[in-house]
Amino acid sequence: MAQLEVQADTTCGSLLRELQGIWDEVGESDNERDRMLLQLEQECLEVYRRKVDQASHARARLHQALADSEAELTALLAALGDRLVLGRSEKLVGTLREQLAAVQPQLDELRQKRQERLEQFVEVKMQIQKMCAEITGSLQPNDPPSHPTIDEQDLSLRRLDDYYAELQSLQQEKNERLHQVLDYVSMVHDLCAVLGMDFFKTITEVHPSLDESPSGQSKSISNDTLKRLVKTVQSLQQERRHRIQKLQDLGAFLIELWNLMDSPDEERQLFHHVTCIIGISENEVMAPGALALDTIEQTEVEVERLDLLKASKMKELVMKKQQELDEIYERAHVEPDPNTAQEKIIAIIDSGIFDP
Hints:
This protein has helices spanning 2-26, 30-80, 88-91, 96-136, 157-195, 199-206, 223-261, 265-269, 272-275, 293-332, 342-351. The model is unreliable at 1-6 and 85-90 (pLDDT under 50). By secondary structure, it is mostly helical.
């Protein structure tokens, strides 16, 4: 700096001496010389003043940039929940540019850290939103994921851990609900198999995602789906009880008719799957199709056939016994009882009033 001042003085003095030599040669008056020297001094002052103003503005900008950097640094530290570094400006040494350069690396590091932390918040919040939607049933397969709202003033690890804890709780609830759904789906499958009903049609009426095909769609675990599954299971269980009772009644009637008709074992074996459920609990009836409508209809047809056969054989027996009775009356010379007339007895048998 001193060297520049000496050089400036030497240059200005040399030029001034050259100017005075010109004035002497020209014969410039003292007044004119004073005026021109004053003008030169003023112009020099203007140049210095502009340079000082420019330097002052540059210094102010550096001060502001340093203050902004430190403010941003403090805000980043606060948002990330890191320990605040107090008295930072007092610890910085060197020129303003050196201080600014010293702050910049840490500022860049914290900006990167903030961006990574923000991405973690977005990811965990999106998962929380998705699970909440799955539980409430508001999630649609083709709905685009909505960007969550993040409080960027609090990106601390403590807050992030809170979100992870919430996500873990929701994940546990989701797993529990999924187990419930799968248990109910299994129950519906077993009940449909026993009742001979279309499982795919029954389960997809509850929710399309519950079929067992590998479509890649996650199964619905919403409150509504669980309620509908419970209702479906209860309805199927009620239908199972009704059909079991009906088949048990038909089976008991079959055994009674077989015994009465002295039916062969081969004929009885055809309906063993019906008579074997007599006296057992409903949960013990597990064979596929054991309670199918076809089974009930076939059993009803068999009971009706045996009932008609029973009536026919009863008529044959009555006619045979009536003939024997008539012979006894004839040998004893006794008039037959009109109340035991063959036609009346057969009419009673046809009416179903008499049941041996």
